[in-house]
Amino acid sequence: MKRSFLTILLGLCYFTLSAQNEVSFEAFVDAKKIVADSYFEVSFTLKNAEGDQFRPPSFRDFIVVAGPSRSMRRSIINGQRSMEMGFSYTLQPRKTGRFTIGSASITVDGKNYKSEPVTLEVVEGRTSAASEEQAFFVRAVPSTAEAYIGQQINLNYKLFTTVDIESYNIIEESDYPGFYAEDLTRFETRTTKEIVDRVQYVSRTLKSVALYPQQAGKLTVDPMQLQLGVVIEDDRRPGNFFFSRPVKRVPTSTPPIELFVKPLPPNPPVTFTGAVGRYSMNSRVSRSTITTDDVLSVVLTITGTGDVKRVQAPELIVDEAFEVYDPNVKEESTFELSGEVKGRKSFEYLLVPKKPGQYKIRPAFSYFDPETGEYATIENSVYDITIKQGTQAASPAISNLEKLEEDYLHPIKTTAKLKKGGTPFWGSDLFWILYILPILGMLGIAGYRQIRKRRLDVDPVLLRRKQAEKVARKRLETANTFLTENKARQFYDEISKAMIGYVCNKLNMPLSAISKDNVKSELEKLEVAPDSVDRFMKILHNCEMALFAGKDNAEAMQETYDNTLQVLAGIETKIK
385 and 324, same structural domain? Predict the structure, then answer.
């Protein structure tokens, strides 16, 4: 019995896993276009299964530099198990032209899976930049340069480089005037190869934002200010265990970009309420047979890729046999899927029947599709409703309205009774309050000026040093919030800003003058213990690595937070 129960349980787990995770076999190339004499990587990934008898395609137009490299990864996210099995090759093209890498195949439980062919273009060019200024740059790349009001635009901030970039830090971001902006947390972070001005760069998306235009015309996205950690290849100075590679911090910014926003076409359908994008609609009714004593509920659920906050309840067109109340919003939520922000919104309509009979309800929803440039209307369901006579002669809504009029609406009075007023204003409580208020206001202004004068007399350098720990602890409180929400990138960014800001305030140094070497030497001049200095530098390095590599280990985040509190407290005690 135990063996049978175990077999059934394992079978149910297998079928549950199979139903949740579909098996797929895909090919991926880290470049769509490369220059001759360069290298690229092609990989074949089997998801949610373990296969055998892998057969690669023919690489007759390429030189196999390395491979196949095999990898296996298993993960559990929100209780769902998944696994990936990968095979990768490093290839070098033999000549220029446009080439197609054929399908690879693999066998899973006796079933053969094939990947789709991938196309690659090889052109003449070079793999290094002509000058140091062209060796790396960051650009804001929108998914489209023209859009309609309310249409979703994905804006990717991409790093292009021919040198080794160890880390990056976003200093200031655009306010996105004219847009509603929402950060994307799930976007493609793999590095790819791209050609810009005949130079081959390695590119990676650093940040992705979903923008929704709120007005028509030309809208400008202001530059993003960043700081890049560029590895100095020619510097041979020895480093310690954690900082074996010297890094130069270089400020950079993205060029501003202009987006053209078009207004929506005139004469929209009656059921259009502002939805722009690609949408679907589901509807349901509470019952198909009711009486004149009942209330009928109709729920419309709208799902799509546009700005769901702009979507209002469409007009529900029904027969005069129903009295329709104003709808209410039951649900409004957003989620990310395949690199896009999707939204879901549900509306509930309450209908009160007035008379018996057979009627039809046809819920409809209209939206504007930017791809076609036209309005589209969804009418996917028709409901046959049977209304029977209830026990009451009139519907509950009408009876309640009559009762409301009887209780609260009284006839207009044609006569009025007058009575003598109260005490005069002169000498009343209100008179004395208004008399004293200006005096108190003048005293308050004088006191404020004295306090402000005392603050201006304080040495700003001394004040900045005294408030260094307070400012750092405020940033750590923000970092603790990100730690609780498991937002790794924001957490490490806030920890890094807290550490660097503490040093800037304590040593009265501008942000541009900060580097790992002078931070360490300045802390040593303040007679901070060597182990505290090393721990401080290690935390700063870990934050830089986590920001660049995208680490999201909860244990490591908690350890970094605890170490930061201890190190800052130790340094502050020593300095005092």
Answer: yes
Residue 1, pLDDT > 50, answer no
In a domain, 216, yes or no: yes
What CA–CA distances, in Å, run from 190 to 4, 31, 161, 560? 45, 11, 14, 26
Q: Domain count of the chain?
A: 4
Do residues 84 and 36 both lie within one domain? yes
What average pLDDT does the segment 289-306 reach?
Answer: 87
Please tell me the predicted confidence (pLDDT) of residue 229.
86
54 with 160, same domain: the answer is: no
Q: SS3 letters for 431-467? A: HHHHHHHHHHHHHHHHHHHHHHHHHHHCCHHHHHHHC
Contacts of 434 (CB under 8 A, 6+ apart): none
Exposure b/e, 445-473, CB count within 10 A at least 16 = b = eeeeeeeeeeeeeeeeeeeeeeebbebbe
pLDDT at residue 387 is higher than 50:
yes
Q: Report pLDDT for 395.
A: 47
| Residue 427: half-sphere exposure toward Cβ, Cα within 13 Å | 3
Cα Rg, the chain, nearest whole Å: 34
- Which residue type, as a one-letter code, is found at position 35? V
d(CA 11, CA 15): 6
Q: How confident is the model at residue 157 (pLDDT cuts 50, 70, 90)?
A: very high
Indicate whether 386 and 471 sit together in one domain: no
Residue 39 has pLDDT above 60, yes or no: yes
247 and 140 in a single domain? The answer is yes
Q: Which comes out higher in pLDDT, residue 363 or 432?
A: 363
CA separation for the pair 194, 161 (Å, rounded): 10
pLDDT at 8: 44
The per-residue pLDDT of the chain, averaged, comes to 79
Distance of CA 457 to the CA centre of its chain: 45
Residue 69 lies in a domain: yes
- Collapsing DSSP to helix, strand or coil, 546 comes out as helix
Domain extent at residue 243:
132-262
Q: Is residue 417 a part of any domain in this protein?
A: no
Q: Which H helix or E strand runs over 272?
A: strand 272-276
DSSP string, 328-380: EEEEEEEEEETTEEEEEEEEEEEEEE-S-EEEEE---EEEEETTTTEEEEE--
